[in-house]
Hints:
The complex is a heterodimer of chains A (318) and B (343).
Chain A: H1 2-23, E1 47-51, E2 54-58, E3 65-67, H2 70-78, E4 85-88, H3 110-114, E5 120-123, H4 130-136, E6 141-143, H5 150-164, H6 167-187, E7 195-199, H7 212-219, E8 223-224, H8 241-247, E9 251-254, H9 264-269, H10 277-280, E10 284-286, H11 289-293, H12 299-317
Parallel strand pairs in A: 3-4, 3-5, 5-6, 7-8, 7-9, 9-10
Antiparallel strand pairs in A: 1-2
Chain B: H1 2-9, H2 11-31, H3 39-47, H4 58-92, H5 105-119, H6 125-150, H7 156-181, H8 186-193, H9 202-221, H10 223-231, H11 233-238, H12 243-265, H13 271-283, H14 287-311, H15 320-342
Amino acid sequence: MGRPRTILMAFALALSLAACGSYGGPDPVATGDTGGSPSEEAPAFPVTVGGTNGSVTIERQPERIVSLSPTATEDLFAIGAGDQVIAVDDQSDFPAVAPTTELSGFEPNVEAIAGYEPDLVVFATEPGDLGASLEALGITALQLDAAPTLAVAFDQIEQLGLATGHAPEAETLVADLQAAVDELVAGADPSSGLSFYFELDDTFYSVTSKTFVGQLFELLGLRNIADAAGKGSGGYPQLSAEYIIEADPDLIFLADTECCGQTPETVAERPGWDGIAAVADGGVVPLDEDVAQRWGPRVVDLLEEIAAAAEAAGANAA
Amino acid sequence: MSVRTALRGSRSRAYVVGVAVLIAAILAGLLVGPVRIGAANVFRWLLTFGQTPSGMSEQEALILAELRLPRVIVAGLVGASLAASGAAYQAVFRNPLADPYLLGAAAGAGLGATIAVAYGPTGAIDVTVPVAAFVGALVGVGLAYGLGRSNVGGRGATSLVLAGVAVASFLTAVQTFLQQQRSQTLRQVYTWILGRLGTTGWDDVWLALPSVVLAVTTLWVVRRLLDVIEVGDVEAQSLGLNVTRLRLVVVLAASLATAAAVAVAGLIGFVGIIVPHTVRLLVGGSYRSVLPLSVLFGASFLIVVDLLARTVVAPAEIPIGVITALVGAPFFVVVLRRNRRAA
Lengths: 318, 343
């Protein structure tokens, strides 16, 4: 009984190793800016880092990281830990050099993950008991779930820095990001009184200022029309079309360009929407859906885009 | 109580009540919404067939004409379709639990919509999803009917229902599989399945209207025969009724109506069960009156439920399927208990 199974498992393992070999890690030429330069002093291990799943102790510097979270993938490459990442999930599409695989972060297959023989698995949401299942196989698992605030998002970058032996790079990155945020916030006009509608999908789901994305707009002093509908919605209310028309927002941000094929043109074609200030004055801004749904380093790009749109709309109104 | 005596009094009086309730529901649907529009202005707008009265803003007129009116009409069409199909299915399958989705219409529509969302052109989802759902629903019922009927042995109703269960499970499995392959489409399929009248426009009215009118008229015409078939296949046959052909006509008509409803509104549960049963409690079991009254009350019911969906947490919305189930499930228990006591 035991023998055939062992052979089978060895076979499966060989197959999955072959599969991961074909991805072969990042292209050495392209990684010049993402694969890290080793830190001055050798990073000290073991370290204990804080994740959504509590304290996680990492014995040695990880060499075979699997990331099941697109945000964590972006974080890892941004702090120079890209060379240590051997596989990322099917939704991790940034940066382009990330070794995208068929692994799913939504429906994780523990066996498939274990097949990569990772020494660290980073994931965001936890369907079932992913963390516990991996621990049972002796694989260190770090959960970094959706960040509720910018501070938490930046802390996750620093935790990943610690976990991978790139703490100094992570600190530098966070300092840079924070400086960029501060500069954008300082440049915003809090008295503009501009209102906006953030569209998650074409059935008018939106976000309130209590959500991660909503807070970015709040930082820039923009007024969220969805806040009036936020009660009891968990931060993601579905708005009535007639309410949106009446609220007459100055800006509309589309986070449904990919999922639902929405563009400024399709928005203008909706019945009754052509009278909305944002539609009439060119204030409909298509966003990169991925950036708007993640909480990685590119959040600053998103903030920049929002600030630019607000500035244009403010100049329009003046 | 008074409604009940009024309805029992005579059939014509029941129709009067039904029509009055429908008119009241339509007016309420037009008058109430997250945006406050003066009642006098709404009436003036209605009486002049959409001329904007002096006291009404351009925006209010747009909200009435482009959002509320089509939404009320679609809610009415969908409610009437689901209630009539439910009543008809309950007769031909002699099963009080039969609902419009019994023969795989829902699963087929879900699969069609998922294929359209996952593999269709992204720009044209407004058009492709309803059409794909419509086709899917008809394919689902067609499969169930074809498979169930080929299993001839005189037990037509039962084998049809069983084939429906098998087809529905199979199509749902295919849909779930496709959805997993394309997990980025998950959210869109999900919001669609929960029911959506929030984005209803005139396109949806024109998409649903022909099928609904054709199907409901057909069911209305054959309503007397439903009483006969409900007694039993053998008895109906001995009375000279072509049971197989009647069942085919009813299944076709009810599926057409259901497909149209699913296409424009997603899956809305319980309407097809609650409404016919309520009507039966009020006027008795003959389909001569159960079917027409189900049409009237089904339309009114869904217009009112949609009104709740867009006003209770205004300016947010609640998916309509959530409210019908929230009201429908407890109601259903009451109907069940009454039936048990009567038996």
